[in-house]
Amino acid sequence: MLYWLAHRLVAWHSGFNVFSYLTFRAILAMGSSLVVSLLIGPTMIQRLSRYQIGQVVRADGPQSHLPKAGTPTMGGTLILVATLVSTLLWAQLTNRRIWLVVIVTLAFGLIGFIDDYLKLVVRNTRGLPARWKYLYQSVVGLAVAAVLFYTARVPAQTILFLPFFKSFAEPLPAPAYILIAYLMTVGMSNAVNLTDGLDGLAIMPAALVSFALGIFAYASGNALFAHYLEIPSIPGTGELLIFCSALSGAGLGFLWFNAYPAQVFMGDVGALAIGAALGVIAVMVRQELVALLMGGVFVLETASVILQVASFKLTGRRIFRMAPLHHHFELKGWAEPKVIVRFWIISLILVLAGLATLKLR
To answer: What is the pLDDT of residue 242?
Structure first.
């Protein structure tokens, strides 16, 4: 909206040309989403408390989590509001990729909202049954995958690229592309959700990965940078930097309230939406494998659950003291803040490793 206004005001004063620069608007998007989060956060937390929308703590979980019962949740709504407001303010709204990632974010956020609402307001302990949750996620994931493939305008949009191998570029047939896009969107959504088990544990890695994906989007959207870095050149992807910056800023604003000891939890409404957004952006910029590297904490958390379930069903024995992985370290005696900060450090290292692939090809 403000981008559109500034574009019209250029005729009145050339100084408004500054808003045509992606980097400048990205800074504004991050700053405005951060400010929106900080401004509306206290009011949202008060209302969640007033309506007694509080966290339900598992009795079989770490005992240190019992005092968290009743802490307001569904705070991911704050992230979504701040991200979408900032994106609408500073993004070029004629860019179809912006609308696609916004729609995916809202769709997965709605699925998470329904699940949270059933658990916390209706007091249905099961929430949205898993089969229905995965069905709705699958419908959205397959739909966005098909749209991306059949609306591709340049060959690079449907080619599989591998980091460190500059000469590897394998065109993907429709089934393979749609499967990869589906797994990235739905898989990343659930991976972030599994990671969201400690105060601030999921949002910092998500903000870091989002910011890094924004850099990839900016480089891919610039033909000169893409050629120099030998990455896919995909016109129009640069605008995704605005959404990524807005999401990072909103995440940092949410962390202000979600840092240990948390005043509010994210809930499925935030975790499912953020994960899906990261997954679909990775597909758009053709950096699926790099995204999995940068989101390694999410991958490890998901793998720990899969291995735990498989081991128990096949052998009757557990690999970890408790899954997801962060609970295993808690039960080993690590204090919650130590688990959180160490996972953050690992995320930062993995994001830097992912960014390094821009040159190591």
So the answer is: 97
